[in-house]
Amino acid sequence: MTIRITHIRLSSGVRDHQHITDVRWANREDSSTGESTVSAVVGWIDSGGKAYSGTGSNLVAVGVVREAGQDPYLRTYADSKWNNNLLSLDTF
């Protein structure tokens, strides 16, 4: 299964990747939708799942960032660098 992340939920008014707590997603194969915690998506990606953000030619891979002393978090990765595509998504 491959998912496209469509919305984010933040834990506070701070709009950064470390404060994303949950995501809404759409399954790219069958168009089913759902919501998951970031920790669940991190585990799913770690076990081989694929996640993206954007549409069409603007589809960008979502990866897991691990920094010392912090919980793993999600961030998009394109052109060999981490970027901010998730932060431009609508919140729920």
Describe the fold and architecture.
The model has no long low-confidence stretch (mean pLDDT 94). By secondary structure, this protein is mainly beta. It has one domain (2-84). Strands 1, 2, 3, 4, 5, 6, 7 and 8 form an 8-stranded mixed sheet that branches. It is 10% helix and 47% strand. The protein is built from 1 helix and 8 strands.
Kindly list the characteristics that best describe this protein.
single chain, 1 helix, 92 residues, mainly beta, 10% helix, 8-stranded mixed β-sheet, globular
Quick structural summary:
With 92 residues, the chain is mainly beta. It is built from one helix and eight strands.
| Terminal-residue CA separation | 23 Å
**Approximately how much helix is present in the residues?**
under 10%
So how many helices?
1
Overall residue-averaged pLDDT value: 94
Gyration radius from CA atoms, angstroms: 12 Å
Total beta-strand segments: 8
Q: State which percent range the strand residues make up.
A: over 45%
Structural category: mainly beta
Large-scale geometry = globular
Count of individual domains: 1
Main beta sheet: strand number and arrangement? 8 strands, mixed
Low-confidence stretches: none
What oligomeric state is this?
single chain
List the secondary-structure elements in sequence, H or E.
EEEHEEEEE
